[in-house]
User: Which sequence fits this backbone?
């Protein structure tokens, strides 16, 4: 496997500013991407009627609907 190394011989003030701008832009981009994934997951979980197998559980007695294959988990609206 080839290996690449670099060495900065001389730094100027614009280098530090460029690194800061790059870091700020990447932080903002990653934050937006994470929020998009979160919003998609929340929307998928909360939308539509759910189907799947209904189980009767005991102690305490209650029913439970399992998610169908390929369906996101159901939540109880607050």
Assistant:
């Amino acid at each position: 496997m080839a290996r690449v190394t670099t060495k900065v011989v001389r730094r100027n003030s614009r280098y530090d500013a460029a690194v800061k701008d790059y870091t700020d832009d990447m932080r903002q981009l990653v934050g937006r991407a994470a929020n998009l994934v979160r919003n998609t997951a929340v929307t998928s979980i909360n939308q539509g009627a759910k189907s799947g197998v209904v189980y009767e559980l005991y102690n305490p007695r209650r029913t439970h609907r399992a998610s169908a294959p390929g369906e996101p988990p159901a939540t109880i609206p607050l």
